[in-house]
Write a structure and sequence with these properties.
Layout: E1 20-27, H1 31-42, E2 47-50, E3 66-67, H2 74-82, H3 84-107, E4 115-123, H4 127-137, E5 144-147, E6 158-167, H5 170-177, E7 183-184, E8 189-193, E9 196-199, E10 203-211, H6 224-227, E11 228-239, E12 246-249, E13 255-260, E14 263-272, H7 280-291, E15 296-308, E16 314-319, E17 322-329, H8 335-350, H9 358-361, H10 368-390, H11 394-397, E18 404-410, E19 413-419
Parallel strand pairs: 1-2, 1-10, 2-7, 4-12, 10-17
Antiparallel strand pairs: 3-6, 4-6, 5-6, 8-9, 9-10, 11-14, 11-15, 12-13, 13-14, 16-17, 18-19
Helix pairs in contact: 1-8, 2-3, 2-4, 3-8
Length: about 425
């Protein structure tokens, strides 16, 4: 199954990289890594990008490619957990990212089906949540309004419109963006030791290293496998169906919709990765037929996204003990704006420039009230998954005290676990 974007970007092939030296090494050839390499080049910084397969694959080619500051009910969530100043910073960072796309596309005259649109959050039963979201957005410089009528093919209780947002074809955009960058494919980073990255082809020495691999590949330090989880969602491109703007439902049963040319991208049926509910495509197809009886499926695909505990991406130093290594992950299904936010922040950090948003997105942040519940859930899910997959022996589990976490060896691998009770 391939996405609607799969055949649209024309990328040249790139050589493998063996031993090398560079000022900055970017690991990961998705949109985040490419944007980071692009802005570093514009700042005059020498950077090399490596990708283990081919660039613009994986999550990047499976996005719905909405470039929006409207990230579900994010502003009410940040306002309640972190306060108004943090909410302002999140809004400003994403608005800056949206405008940076506009600047690059206009300056370089990139043909990528870029359109200015409105985005909507809609509900059939939770209007108060939209009222709270709009309240949190007041004073942030957005043009938002609650409306009762939309172009959706089903009745709603209310929708929150955010004007002056955008959408595009990400592969057409990236195929133009990558023509003058130092990119190497089929080069997989295996480990980082000091300033040296070992790959499947050799060793690369870099003064600074950026990990932009969707899910960070170094477990310790950082422990990102305990600090975020992954969710999978499904999308279909429908022929013979039309819509002008972009929509996302906030209810338990929700759909995501946007136009692309003469098609609609119709998504939904999201779930935590590993739960594996049955017949997601069949149920999504039934929903699409109910909404658009005359439509036909052009193609279908799925995407997997990293979800952080507090809804804010991790962008900044990988860990306090690795001050020369940086990370961009946990985009919470909003990879287009979050990738550009990452590129802007990390370019400033690499060049030792002050960035007003870096503290909000810093991976070392901790807000216990915002994170505790999800930290426990994610930790237990991770432990359960590891225990089921790795079949850790009881004596290994007993090495960790009750109600505490720790690191145990499983073969040659270090595993982070949390022990909930005396029983193992």
């Amino acid at each position: 199954m391939q996405s609607v974007w799969a055949e649209s970007g024309k990328f040249k092939s790139h050589d493998r990289l063996g031993d090398a030296n560079t000022d900055v090494l970017v690991i990961g050839g998705g949109i985040a890594g490419i944007l980071i390499a692009k802005l570093l080049k514009e700042s005059g910084t020498d950077a090399i990008l490596i990708e283990k397969n081919k660039i613009a694959g994986g999550v990047t080619k499976n996005t719905t490619a909405k470039i929006t500051c409207q990230h579900d009910l994010i502003y009410d969530r940040i306002y309640k957990n972190f306060g108004h100043e943090a909410t302002e910073k999140y809004a400003a960072a994403n608005l800056q990212a949206l405008n940076k796309y506009r600047e690059i596309i206009a300056r370089e005259n990139i043909d990528c089906a870029f359109e200015n649109i409105s985005t909507f959050l809609y509900t059939k039963e939770n209007e108060q949540k939209l009222i709270d979201e709009q309240h949190a957005m007041q004073g942030l410089g957005f043009q938002s309004a609650l409306v009762a009528q939309t172009e959706l093919p089903f009745p709603i209780q209310a929708a929150l419109e955010l004007k002056d947002q955008a959408q595009f074809n990400p592969l057409m955009f990236l195929s133009e963006l990558t023509t003058d960058l130092k990119i190497y494919e089929d080069t997989q980073a295996l480990s980082i030791f000091g300033n040296e990255v070992t790959t499947n082809n050799g060793k690369i020495k870099a003064k600074k290293i950026i990990v932009a691999t969707h899910f960070p590949f170094i477990n310790n330090p950082g422990y990102y496998f305990m600090r975020q989880h992954q969710e999978r969602s499904y999308v279909m491109a429908l022929d013979n169906a039309t819509i002008k703007n972009a929509y996302l439902g906030i209810d338990d049963e929700y759909y995501s919709l946007r136009s692309y040319g003469d098609k609609i991208l119709f998504g939904g049926m999201g779930h935590r990765t590993g739960e594996s509910p049955q017949d997601c495509y069949d149920r999504l197809q039934a929903a699409a037929k109910s909404c658009y009886p005359n439509s036909q499926i052009n193609c279908m695909w799925s995407a997997q996204d990293c979800m952080t505990h507090d809804g804010i991406p991790y962008i900044g130093n990988y860990a306090t003990s690795l001050d020369h290594v940086y990370v961009a992950t946990g985009f919470n299904k909003w990879g287009m704006t979050s990738s550009m936010v990452s590129a802007i922040i990390l370019t400033d950090l690499i060049n030792e420039k002050q960035n007003e948003f870096a503290d909000l997105f810093s991976p070392s942040r901790m807000n216990f009230l915002a994170s505790a519940k999800n930290l426990v859930v994610d930790g237990l899910e991770t432990i359960s998954g590891l225990a089921n997959r790795l079949e850790l022996p009881n004596e290994k589990l007993l090495e960790v005290e009750v109600s505490k976490g720790g690191i145990v060896m499983h073969g040659d691998e270090k595993i982070g676990i949390y022990r909930q009770s005396e029983n193992v």
